[in-house]
Amino acid sequence: MSAEIIIDGIIDEIEWNDAQVFDQFVTVEPLSGAPAKYKTQVRLLTNAEGIYVAFSNYQPASVKRVNRRFARDVEIKGDKNIVSIDFDGNQLTGYDFTVGSANSMQDGILANDKYRRDWDGIWYSETSSDENYWYSEIFIPWSVAPMTKTESGKKEMSFWFSRVVYDESLRFAFPDAFYTRNTFIQDWHRIEVNQEETSSFEMYPYLSYTNNIKSSQPNIQTSDTKAGLDFIWRPNSSVQLTGALSPDFGQVESDDLVVNFSAFETFMSEKRPFFTENQGLFNSEIPNEDVILYTRRIGSGYGAKEGTPIDIDYATKFTRYSDSFDLGVFYVKEDDLPDFEGSEYLSSRLQRKQGDLTLGHRLTYVNRNEIGKEATIQVIDSEWKMSETTLWQLHFMHSKINQNSDLEEYKSSDIAAWVSWNYQPSDERWYTLYYSHYGEDFDLTDLGYMKRRDYNEWYAYFQNNWNENLRLENLLSAYWSLEAGESRTNAGNRLELWWNSEAELTFKNTGKVKLRLGTTAPGWDNLLTRGFSDFRKPVQKWNELSYSGPQGGDFSYYLSTTFETDGLEDLNRSVNFGIGFYASETLNIGSSITYKEYREWLIWDSEIERLTNYKADSYFLDLRLDWNPSSNHEIRFKFQWAGVDAVLSEVFEISHDGYLNNIGLMASNFSFGDTALQLRYRYKLGPLSDAYLVYSRGGYFDSYDGEEGVNQLFNNGWDNVSVESIIAKIRLSF
Averaged over 160-170, what is the pLDDT? Predict the structure, then answer.
């Protein structure tokens, strides 16, 4: 069939008469399985170009429509339609295409039981509305994702269609499937389509100009012009080669301001196109929040002098999908600097699914030429869906590190492993058990993200949901969860023995109340001192109460209050308040303010190699404005400020048996104010093709006062400019 469908949001072409129709939608939020409150109909057809989907959403004038426009890939807080597709029908990877009622677009990918929004594909949509309905038309080209090829020319794909009525916090879906179930992708509706063989070659050249008005870093050029090229070659539907020559990894979208005095590295999400496009095969999160492949390492200057970012010379990525196995490989080479030799990065992924069992192998390899270091990680992973209610996962990991340079000679090799059991007998109950072992020398950090090594950990989790027949008339849904766990070093020293419980009530007006509380027993801390010495940490406690107001109106808000310890015994207090105002369907203004009073704040002071305790006041302000006057224009304003006043209370020495002894004041108070501002204009030239104009400004101030006060922290943090730049960038598509 040759379709002549125009994607305009109006379902009037005669070709739609031949489409498959799905209208048996049920309620999945709350997860009751009851027939949908409002009629929803989906039509689907395919042809040589791709997949066409049309939604007809019954929503009369008596039901409020939340018709807001958002920038591409920003969470759509409004009425929306979602198409989710497993192109191979093998329950390994699902692609998500979301359209808001004002034609906002968002996409993502579900792989290895993790959902990521940082995947971008080329697809098209439009919406329209009348008195009783709103409509969406979606076109998804075959080239949007790789898939296996069948000899028969017929292919079974799996689809999941869902719709959100935002003002009532309702979601309807066909078929009856939901992401909290172990069988989520398995439950999608299978549809046989004619497979079309496609090939494509796409180029994305870019040109950027940066004017560094001011920079605190030495040897930064006043201005810098860069040019480069990304390309995607799909010789057929199952093979894809992606490449980048001198890619521009400059920030046209700024990272959030972070204040982190903990022993854990801050995890940053990926924003660079090469590492988000066609990346699903490489997703590698572990339940304890570790990540085998953490692409923000690449080009970050990790291991370089002063951590200065390093340009990328070139990068390439290859994926191949087939019925027998899926294969992915990528390689990246950093630029060489006059005084620094860039590193090389290699990662590969091989996976095979046979029935309900999936087996895979991962490899990451880093060659840090500058310091003569090679790091190799190998992982064997498996997932077994034992039944509709039971899921097993197992990973076995091995690290090998060799370093031979003038500075250091070092070799290590060790293992780690984890296993999890997930049991869901019904939508109301959910059980998880997890156990892991990390060797003393196991190390992911050269191309991964890892919180700690040398430990054994277990935890158990239980959740109970109430989605129907609730006793309170105004209650829409509720859940309660309890989790507990313990971790010990391989030598047997207990690190943590903890429990945590939380409960949430969602009301029919979409307001939410949430309560969280928990404690840890006394245990050893072997991280805060950065390896200097282990110490005994007393009982830790936390509790939090929060409320989010109704979400469908022009004004929204939330308020939370938290009491928690931070290394010692006294409870610290914090309050977080946020507001949002939708001045129109295209203009959104939001702000959040957090204040935390530290009565006892335990921090490691690396200069004197001692643990220090502070009384402190911490402030954080986040102010944002998003204006999307049309689908092609976006203006974004983002301002963040963090400030801390900290007065020294005690300095501790760690005794031979791990207890903290006060040895008098050997450190000083401290204060700092940190500001970050970005003003960005974005013009959409076409799919994945944009022009940007970005102004960024950052300021930083610090002192040994400890009692500067809010005004001084803010004013000095703003006035003492450390970074200021203007970036112009254009990315074209051919």
Answer: 95
User: Is residue 125 classed as helix, strand or coil in its secondary structure?
Assistant: strand
Written as one letter, the residue type at 459 is Y
Q: Are the C-beta atoms of residues 217 and 308 closer than 8 Å to each other?
A: yes
Q: Which domain holds residue 157?
A: 14-198
- 401-415, 538-552, 557-571: least confidently modelled range: 401-415
Please give the Cα distance from 160 to 114 (Å, whole number): 17
How far apart, in Å, do the first and last CA atoms of the chain sit? Answer: 28
Sequence-ordered list of residues with C-beta below 8 angstroms from that of 385, at least 6 positions apart, any chain: 91, 182, 183, 186, 356, 357, 391
Q: Which two tokens stand for residue 618?
A: 């911490």
Q: Would 69 be classed as within a structural domain?
A: yes
Cα–Cα dist 215/122, whole Å: 37
CA distance 676 to 672: 14
Please indicate, yes or no, whether residues 167 and 238 belong to a single structural domain of this protein.
Answer: no
Residue with more model confidence, 279 or 193: 193
Q: How far apart are CA 313 and CA 337, in angstroms?
A: 11
Is residue 31 domain-resident? yes
Residue 667 lies in a domain: no
Tens of pLDDT, residue by residue over 86-139, are 998 888 889 999 999 999 999 988 876 677 777 778 899 999 999 999 999 999
The stretches of 136-193 forming alpha helices (DSSP H) are none
Strands 633-654 and 572-582: unpaired
**Own/partner pairs for 326-331, CB < 8 Å, 24+ apart?**
326/92, 326/281, 326/350, 326/351, 326/352, 328/281, 328/282, 330/242, 330/282
Cβ atoms of 95 and 121 closer than 8 Å: yes
> What's the CATH code of the domain at 81?
2.60.40.1190
Using CA atoms, how far residue 189 sits from 16, 35, 90, 118, 180, in Å, is: 20, 17, 12, 25, 17
Per-residue pLDDT tens over the stretch 36-82 = 999 999 999 998 889 999 999 999 989 999 999 998 888 899 999 99
Q: What is the identity of the amino acid at 592?
A: S
pTM (two decimals): 0.88
Residue 85 has pLDDT above 90, yes or no: yes
- Whether residues 322 and 380 share a domain: the answer is yes
- DSSP for residue 273: H
Is 631 within 8 Å of 684 (Cβ atoms)? yes
Cis peptide bond N-terminal to 30, omega within 30 = yes
454: which strand partners?
Answer: none
Q: Kindly state whether residues 276 and 414 are assigned to the same domain.
A: yes
Cβ atoms of 476 and 509 within 8 Å: the answer is no
Q: How many domains does the chain have?
A: 2
Work out the mean pLDDT of the chain and round it to a whole number: 90
pLDDT at 333: 92
Residue 467 lies in a domain: no
Among candidate residues 582, 575, 578, the one with its CA nearest the CA of residue 592: 578
Tell how far CA 489 is from the center of its chain.
30
Closest-CA residue to 319 (of 398, 210, 243, 211): 243
Q: Is the pLDDT of residue 1 over 90?
A: no
- Domain-terminating residue out of 157, 174, 198: 198
